[in-house]
């Protein structure tokens, strides 16, 4: 008999009736039937065992099978309750969990350890932390599963104080406990805190990190651009013999790529062997693309197709980005067409955005506008942002103003749209337009994010804000900054004050403003803090301006340094007076 469509126990009357069934008084059994109750109990246990076995094999049908178990007249045991509660947790079904709780309490099964753990987990996942805590406080403090379930509940709820207090008060913390805290830090942007917790985990010697731990920690390192810490994490993986499977390999490739060490990413990728899957190929493709190696990305994509591995949407998004950044217009158009005709993948907004960016970077604004018009969906902010950015670069002010207003309409709370449109007006000398845009930004309460750059020195992250003079090493930094400016002038560098988008006439003030851009401050600190010839790696939250791009090219030649800057858009590898991204910034 197949399970019913609607779970039987979801109606409170049925559940109550089923729970009360054993307590109903019945007629006395005749003498000849003395063995019947035992046989009935054996039959009930057999039926329950049969249903729990089916629940294990079909966890998605656990609630329906539990319903059928009740219909059969058998008594559910603690295993059946636990499996049904697991389904409640996966489905975020608090109502069903509460009904199971009531049913188990009436049957005397709610005090069983496994049922309690299932209740705590289900309530915590559903956000009912008060209910989860009530069950937990009934004497299950020594159970690691109960502790971790409630810890995850606090993490999901985002209650920082309760989460930390509960974690500190845990009687015994295992790998799952530490992973929960580290993952929470990463998900909430507390990257340095995630690394600090990882160090505390190692120092506590309570347990050993596993692959899940390393994936979270490497993700935090990736965001910070802390290559030295990333190298240590990779060495730890090798030293401890941790298997580098798909997720960990992708995390390592991503880390090396986003720290500007593409050689490290290639080393990890080429040594994976049979562990390669679409995700690892995509990670390597994205690494080449972000580091200005568009040709290598296209070569790798061709190699991927030869292996017979089927690319997905992310693959084509990455390849189209490579074509866009590398200026391969024909190749990009071919990939876009092949995606649909060969692989049957319908382009989404990201793919159309890549094509718009491809045409815009090449200055093909007619084709870009045509692509926007033929899109089957409404253009999003990314599409308009690509168009406005290209209009700024190619000084197409008329189209830039039009696209800028569309960008603000698409993303009214994003400061980038206002800043880009303001830049368009400023470059055109239209200061009235600049003031109108900035007033609109002020009226809507949208604030511009200040430019900041960070650099890792001896495992410590140092952050610099554009125009900020409060760094502890400011005297040494500004002395180095002054030397840099003098060396640049000797090399023939002339500050491009068109990038100072302020309505002021004093060129000296404009040049001073450019000299205090965060990436230049970070480079000055890197020059005085590292040995000659050491690569300087910087992560910036915004896009590198054109003046800084030109200045850093010369600085890499003057000081004989490889300077790698990861900005909001891509990587810039400056070496011997040139950049991996060419003259387009």
Q: What do these coordinates show?
A:
Keywords: Repeat, Transit peptide. Residues 492-585 form the DYW domain. Pfam families: DYW_deaminase, E_motif, PPR, PPR_1, PPR_2. GO terms for molecular function: RNA binding; zinc ion binding. It comes from Oryza rufipogon. The protein has helices at 12-20, 36-57, 62-71, 78-90, 94-107, 113-125, 129-136, 144-157, 160-168, 175-187, 191-204, 211-224, 227-239, 246-258, 262-270, 278-290, 294-307, 313-326, 329-341, 349-361, 365-374, 381-394, 397-410, 415-427, 431-443, 474-490, 507-515, 518-529, 546-558, and strands at residues 452-457, 460-465, 536-540, 563-566, 571-575, 578-579. A hairpin with a 2-residue loop joins β1 and β2. By secondary structure, it is mainly alpha-helical. It is globular and about 90 Å long. The protein contains 29 helices and 6 strands. Among the domains are: 42-170; 346-447, Serine Threonine Protein Phosphatase 5, Tetratricopeptide repeat, CATH 1.25.40.10; 452-577, no CATH class. It has a 6-stranded mixed β-sheet with strand order 2-1-3-4-5-6.
């Amino acid at each position: 008999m197949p399970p019913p469509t609607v779970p039987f126990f979801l109606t409170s009357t049925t559940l109550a009736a089923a729970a009360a069934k054993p307590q109903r008084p019945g007629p006395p059994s005749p003498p000849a039937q003395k063995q019947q109750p035992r046989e009935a109990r054996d039959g009930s246990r057999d039926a329950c065992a049969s249903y729990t076995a089916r629940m294990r094999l079909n966890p998605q049908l656990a609630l329906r099978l539990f319903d059928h178990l009740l219909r059969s007249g058998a008594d559910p045991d603690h295993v059946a309750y636990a499996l049904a509660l697991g389904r409640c947790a996966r489905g975020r079904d608090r109502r069903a969990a509460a009904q199971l709780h009531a049913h188990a309490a009436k049957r005397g099964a709610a005090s069983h350890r496994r049922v309690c753990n299932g209740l705590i987990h289900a309530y915590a996942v559903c956000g009912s932390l008060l209910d989860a805590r009530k069950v937990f406080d009934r004497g299950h403090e020594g159970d690691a599963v109960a502790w971790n379930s409630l810890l995850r509940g606090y993490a999901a709820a985002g209650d920082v104080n309760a989460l930390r207090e509960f974690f500190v008060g845990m009687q015994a913390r295992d790998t799952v406990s530490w992973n929960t805290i580290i993952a929470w830090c990463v998900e909430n942007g507390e990257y340095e805190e995630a690394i600090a917790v990882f160090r505390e985990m190692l120092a506590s010697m309570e347990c050993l990190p596993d692959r899940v731990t390393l994936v979270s920690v490497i993700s935090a390192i990736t965001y910070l651009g802390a290559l030295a810490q990333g190298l240590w994490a990779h060495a730890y993986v090798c030293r401890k013999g941790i298997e580098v499977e798909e997720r960990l390999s992708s995390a390592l490739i991503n880390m090396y790529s986003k720290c500007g060490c593409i050689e490290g990413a290639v080393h990890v990728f080429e040594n994976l062997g049979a562990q390669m899957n679409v995700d690892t190929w995509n990670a390597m493709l994205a690494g080449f693309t972000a580091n200005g190696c568009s040709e290598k990305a296209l070569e790798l994509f061709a190699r991927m197709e030869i292996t017979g591995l089927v690319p997905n949407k992310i693959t084509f998004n990455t390849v189209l980005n490579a074509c866009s950044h590398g200026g391969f217009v024909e190749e990009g158009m071919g990939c876009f067409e092949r995606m649909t005709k060969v692989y049957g993948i319908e382009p989404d907004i990201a793919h159309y955005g890549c094509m718009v960016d491809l045409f815009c970077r090449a200055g093909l604004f007619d084709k870009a506008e045509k692509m926007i018009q033929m899109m089957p969906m409404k253009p999003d902010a990314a599409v308009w942002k690509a168009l406005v950015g290209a209009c700024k670069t190619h000084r197409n002010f008329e189209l830039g103003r039009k696209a800028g207003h569309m960008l603000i309409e698409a993303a009214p709370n994003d400061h980038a749209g206002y800043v880009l449109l303001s830049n368009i007006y400023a470059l055109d000398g239209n200061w009235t337009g600049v003031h109108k845009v900035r007033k609109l930004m002020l009226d809507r309460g949208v604030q511009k994010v200040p430019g900041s750059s960070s650099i890792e020195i001896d495992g410590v992250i140092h952050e610099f804000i554009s125009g900020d003079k409060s760094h502890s090493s400011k005297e040494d930094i500004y002395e180095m900054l002054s030397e840099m400016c003098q060396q640049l002038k000797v090399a023939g560098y002339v500050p491009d004050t068109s990038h100072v988008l302020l309505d002021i006439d004093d060129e000296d003030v404009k040049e001073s403003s450019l000299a205090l851009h965060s990436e230049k401050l970070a480079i000055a600190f890197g020059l005085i803090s590292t040995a000659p010839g050491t690569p300087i790696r910087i992560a910036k939250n915004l896009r590198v301006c054109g003046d800084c791009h030109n200045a850093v090219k010369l600085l890499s030649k003057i000081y004989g340094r490889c300077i790698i800057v990861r900005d909001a858009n891509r990587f810039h590898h400056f070496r011997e007076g040139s950049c991996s991204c060419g003259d387009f910034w």
